[in-house]
């Protein structure tokens, strides 16, 4: 076993293993039976939400195809601790299976994870124990709708301190393609750290800072000795378009010169901007308004200082797209199985007892978590 990223001081290995067994047993039971009444928090920890939410009976989460009158939110979603989102349904379904394996949960080989928001026909949503995986589409308007409804879901389910993470792709600024960038703050095209929306025709700006400590914790999951790519923390420019909004020269329209593009991208580089994508502003603004810790973890699929078109073969892109997923799965595993503050007094169940002991895994390691079947 090789420990690499340093998490806070380690308790005794037997205590770790026992705590892991208890955590796993609880995850498995919650996966089978849902969150028990006595495990539900009294209230969610989210802040600043619409005071009218409590009066909405039912509250219909239209784009997720869910309603509070037909789904028992505290029972079904009360155990959610991590909400991961990425652009496409396929990527998030793959991530759901991947994270399931990484946190040691299994489903019967003959069953499939269900897309919980299939009825909404807009986003995909999968639940793997305490992890929700959602697709968000492209751009701030799309992710903003998803976030409003997921935040309301957390509220109705009375979730405690859920962590939201966007995993995705981006165009790098002066970084090697394949590098993972963890966003320190999201900025708009004027380098302003705020998400602007029009409310009643009036501009309203919401700050787009992200959780610094969460970014550091995810960065610590990168192993510079073993991982064959770099992970950096930096500013992310969020554009409302892939072409002119990102100063590309290959869009259907282009009313600026290559020199103007060069000057703009070099200005971004001088301001510590490491990448450009299209959702971080809304993501950062909405999560921080709700008092949710949020992180944006994107791989750069090209270096925009060297061009606009994405010429990298699909097999390579697929490998690169897994990098943010790997770091985030490691982060989740560490948080679940190596959290000293977890006062989890549950006893291990037969089916999982000893499973953690078999691995000897500490969550500070890149090792697999214990495994147990939930269905
Ligand atoms: C990254 O990639 C998409 C555009 O190709 C967009 O959703 C983003 O942020
Ligand atoms: N996604 C973006 O928004 N821009 C890029 O250049 C690549 C991916």
UniProtKB/TrEMBL annotation:
Name of the protein: Uridine phosphorylase
Family: Belongs to the PNP/UDP phosphorylase family.
The organism of origin for this protein: Drosophila yakuba (Fruit fly)
Summary of the function given for this chain in its UniProt record: Catalyzes the reversible phosphorylytic cleavage of uridine to uracil and ribose-1-phosphate which can then be utilized as carbon and energy sources or in the rescue of pyrimidine bases for nucleotide synthesis. Shows broad substrate specificity and can also accept deoxyuridine and other analogous compounds.
InterPro entries: Nucleoside_phosphorylase_CS (IPR018016), Nucleoside_phosphorylase_d (IPR000845), Nucleoside_phosphorylase_sf (IPR035994), Uridine_phosphorylase_euk (IPR010059)
Binding site for phosphate: 122, 166-169
The UniProt record lists the keyword Transferase: yes
Positions of substrate binding: 246, 248
Xref: Pfam families: PNP_UDP_1
Known catalytic reactions: uridine + phosphate = alpha-D-ribose 1-phosphate + uracil
Gene3D superfamilies (alphabetical): Nucleoside phosphorylase domain (3.40.50.1580)
Region of interest (Disordered), residue spans: 339-375
Segments crossing the lipid bilayer: none
Domain Nucleoside phosphorylase: from-to ranges: 82-333
UniProt KW keywords: Glycosyltransferase, Transferase
Acidic residues bias spans: 340-353
GO BP annotation list: nucleotide catabolic process; UMP salvage; uridine catabolic process
Keyword presence, Zinc-finger: no
One GO molecular-function entry: uridine phosphorylase activity
E.C. number(s) listed in UniProt: 2.4.2.3
Primary enzyme class: transferase
Highest taxon, organism lineage: Eukaryota
One GO CC annotation: cytosol
Pathway(s) this gene product operates in, as recorded in its UniProt entry: Pyrimidine metabolism; UMP biosynthesis via salvage pathway; uracil from uridine (phosphorylase route): step 1/1
């Amino acid at each position: 076993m090789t420990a690499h990223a340093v998490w806070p001081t380690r308790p005794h290995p037997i205590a770790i293993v026992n705590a892991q067994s208890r955590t796993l047993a609880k995850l498995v039971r919650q996966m089978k039976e849902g969150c028990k009444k006595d495990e539900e928090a009294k209230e969610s920890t989210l802040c600043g939400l619409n005071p009218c939410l409590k009066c909405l009976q039912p509250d219909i989460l239209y784009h997720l195809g869910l309603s509070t009158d037909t789904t028992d939110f505290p029972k079904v979603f009360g155990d959610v601790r991590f909400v991961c989102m990425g652009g496409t349904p396929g990527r998030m379904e793959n991530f759901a299976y991947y994270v399931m394996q990484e946190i040691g949960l299994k489903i019967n080989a003959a069953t499939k994870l269900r897309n919980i928001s299939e009825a909404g026909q807009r986003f995909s949503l999968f639940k793997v124990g305490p992890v929700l995986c959602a697709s968000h589409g492209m751009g701030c308007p799309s992710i903003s709708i998803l976030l409003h409804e997921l935040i309301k879901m957390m509220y109705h389910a009375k979730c405690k301190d859920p962590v939201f993470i966007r995993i995705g792709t981006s165009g790098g600024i002066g970084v090697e393609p394949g590098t993972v960038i963890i966003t320190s703050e999201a900025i708009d095209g004027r380098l302003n750290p705020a998400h602007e929306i029009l409310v009643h025709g009036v501009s309203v700006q919401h700050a787009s800072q992200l959780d610094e400590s969460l970014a550091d914790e995810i960065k610590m999951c990168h192993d510079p000795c073993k991982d064959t790519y770099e992970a950096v923390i930096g500013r992310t420019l969020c554009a409302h378009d892939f072409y002119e909004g990102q100063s590309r020269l290959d869009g259907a329209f282009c009313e600026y010169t290559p020199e103007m593009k060069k000057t703009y991208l070099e200005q971004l580089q001088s301001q510590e901007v490491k990448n450009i994508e299209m959702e971080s502003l809304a993501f950062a603004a909405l999560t921080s308004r709700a008092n949710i810790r949020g992180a944006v973890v994107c791989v750069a699929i090209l270096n925009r200082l060297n061009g606009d078109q994405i010429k990298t073969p699909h097999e390579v892109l697929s490998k690169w797209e897994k990098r943010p997923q790997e770091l985030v799965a490691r982060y989740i595993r560490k948080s679940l199985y190596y959290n000293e503050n977890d006062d989890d007094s549950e006893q291990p169940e037969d089916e999982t007892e000893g499973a953690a002991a078999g691995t000897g895994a500490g969550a500070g390691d890149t090792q697999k978590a214990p495994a147990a079947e939930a269905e």
